[in-house]
Amino acid sequence: MLDLLAQTGLNAVYAASYISLVAVGLVLIFGVMGVINFAHGELFMAGAYAVVALYADLNVPFFAAVAIGLLFVGCLGLLMEKALFRPLKTNPLGGLVASIGFLMILQALAVMGFGVRMEHIPPVTQEVIAFTDKVRLPVARLYVIVAAVVLLSALWYFLKRTRFGWALRASAQDPEAAALQGISIVQTAKIAMFIGAGLAGIAGALTAPLVSVNPHMGHSVIVTAFIVIIVGGVGSLEGAIVASIAYALVHTFVTTFYDGVLADIVGLSLMLVVLIVKPTGLFGSADRA
Amino acid sequence: MISKIVKSGLTRRTFLKSTAVTALSAGLPGASRAAGSTIRIGFLAPLTGAVAAWGKPGLDGCQIWAERVNAAGGIKLGDGSHEIEFVSYDNEYDPAKARTGATKLIREDGVSFIMMLGGDTWPGVQPVADKTGMLFSTLLPSDLSPDTSTLIAPAEVHPIYNVTGVEWLAENKPELKTAVMCAQDDALGLPSVATYLAAFEAAGIEMLDAPLLFDPATTDFAPVVTRLISKDPDIVCLDTCYSDYVHPIAEQLFQQGFKGQIISCTADFYDQMIAKTSEEFMEGFVFQFPDFDDPALNGSNINFTDPNGFYAEYNRRHPGQWGAVSWEYASIMDLWKAAAEKAGSASPDAVAAAMKDGKGKHAFGDADWWGTELFGIDNALVGDWPVVAIEQGKARIKDFRSIPDWYAKHGDLLVKHMQAYDQMWDQRS
User: Fold this and answer.
1) What backbone phi and psi angles, to 5 degrees, belong to B100?
2) What number is the ipTM of this complex?
3) Which residues pair with B365 in a beta bridge?
4) In angstroms, what separates the C-alpha of A139 from chain B's closest C-alpha?
């Protein structure tokens, strides 16, 4: 039983890692831009396909492919900011609808470029850290955990300890007041989109060898991310991380000790309970952060 | 809108003429064909979207089939020889699009027969089948019911053939005593769960746990696998999981240190699974779909024309794309062609009557039209089915086993488990 608990705990840590990378990116974009980016799951998918193209097809070293994937998806974020969100800034629903359209375009491009079938990605490593015979952590999963800890720590440092980070937070709290202080709203929006999209991209890139890469893979990821940010409090980065950990723990343990279908129901119930008890989410406030 | 069309040059006379022709072609599909004209076959399946892997490779296989038949002189009916042409419509696995596609294929394209994947798309098409009398085929016999008289399942009897793999395993590896199973919670997974449960019970293999069902949207299979192997089973059964699930589950079994037997309905692209795990890990993996370069397919019992040549040509055109459906639609066409030539006509009712007259030439041997107990109608062609195992990195047929023989001995178990999962034809809505 101890082995089973430990293995389930390791599975949950991995799940929390990639969910938090995606969710924090989504929250950052919402916080600064005020836009719910429905295409965020497809940015995750784009990161995975970057690895397919570079690592699987062109034999680029895996970590170089991941880095290029991060930059590529970050640039997709910049494109979305300029082409979709900036022109539609005054239209409350415009950005949301545009992101749904962009989602479909990205899916169609993936189908045109790679076909509809699951992509095969050679394993990055088959090394496993075996704590016991039944408690094992594949090193490829460890990469995701390390990346999440490093990147989210770096983001925390950036937001709390740098001038750009302060500007970003100021823009998120009160765009007009920030603008009056000389902060460029356009610049902060670009930074937020690049980081937010890049986090989804790197999550997709790192998990690509571990999941089924296909044009529709973003769907389940975005559903999970939405649950997480609602539980954590829309707009709260800390809330997104805490809720990712809570959701991953609940979902993984329920899947292991009951079944996966019940785990989904429990995950959604968790969101409903939080909404009933605290409609703004665990760390949310009435105003977006 | 109508006035615009009329203004653009459509006269009342041409409108009535075209309507009459359309009505005729809808009412008498294939009957007014001139000698030497091309016979059109409809291919109504998902060609894009999440289920395209069970549609598009089938169309690719049909194109090869048509080229081979046409090169050999076409299909010989009462009024002479005809070439075959496939007309495809992408239903995107959507019932409404499938209905539109069926209507178009019948009314505009004048097809004589329509092949489908079936499943969720069949209910959309059934009213069109009822109205037109068109002959349809499905790969999923769970579409069959007493109300689907023009629907046949002549290629595969999913999931009933899965009993053959378990039966073979029990006879050849009697040391395997316990099993666990996982499946996605959907229309493909659940009847397969019931079938495997019946097969394990018949074989005296103990289930250590209830089947673990997971949401089809699952992407991380580590928790599923942790649960599966927590009770140290001898066998892990992957049921009829989609290949998008089979691959990551197998990889997780490898990474979490499982060393027992794996059995699965399919192992599409198993070479990729070997690449992600190892040849040793995949050795002995049992499933139900052979590669068609298998020497066992050259036997006299096989009714598929030149399986080795077909496989070679398929791989030349679509390298790395071979899967279960690559040959199944083509094998249906072998049956359809034989029936049409026997009837001397391509009309749906004549072909259906000829096809069901006596034993059917199923790809894996002569078979019977069967299914009343499970489907409410004898429209599934059932006989032998191969058991395949991976040996030194290559899929090889280990045996052909009779599904009707198994059912004669253990049918009550299958019905019991099907009923428990609400999968009998009279329980399905």
Assistant:
1) -60, -45
2) 0.85
3) B362
4) 10
Residue with token string 């009279």: B426
B253-290 residue pLDDT tens: 999 999 999 999 999 889 989 999 999 999 999 999 99
* Residue from A288, A263, A253 nearest A5 by CA: A253
Which residues in B264-347 belong to E strands, given as ranges?
286-287
CA A130 to chain centre: 28
Report residue B197 as tokens: 């449960």
Contacts with B276 from chain A: Cβ below 8 Å:
122-123
Distance CA B419, CA B146 (A): 18
Residues of B in contact with A145 (CB under 8 A): none
Cβ separation of B255 and A7 shorter than 8 Å?
no
* Contact state of B224 with A260 under an 8 Å Cβ cutoff: yes
Tens of pLDDT, residue by residue over B392-415, are 999 999 999 999 999 999 999 999
CA A134 to chain CA centroid, Å, is 30
| Chain CA centroid to CA A184, Å | 26
Per 3-state DSSP, chain B is made up of helix, strand and coil in percentages (nearest 5) of 45, 20, 35
CA distance A263 to chain B (A): 9
Contact A122 B224 (CB under 8 A): no
Cβ–Cβ < 8 Å for B115, B137: yes
CB atoms within 10 A of CB A157: 11
Q: Report the SS3 class of residue A287.
A: coil
Please tell me which of the candidates A212, A256, A261 has its beta carbon nearest to residue B247: A212
Residues of chain A with Cβ-Cβ distance to B243 below 8 Å are: 118
Quick one: A153 exposed, middle or buried, by C-beta within 10 A (0-12, 13-18, 19+)?
exposed
- Is A118's CB within 8 Å of B247's CB? yes
CB atoms within 10 A of CB A1: 6
* Contacts of B67 by beta carbon, 8 Å cutoff, 6+ apart: none
pTM for the full model? 0.84
| Residues on chain A touching B278 (C-beta within 8 angstroms) | 126
Are the CB atoms for B337 and B356 separated by under 8 Å? no
Q: Kindly report the average pLDDT of chain A as a whole number.
A: 89
Read off the pLDDT of each residue in B5-20 and give the average, rounded to a whole number. Answer: 40
For residue A209, give the nearest of A111, A107, A65 by alpha carbon. Answer: A65
Termini Cα distance of chain A: 42
CB atoms within 10 A of CB A285: 12
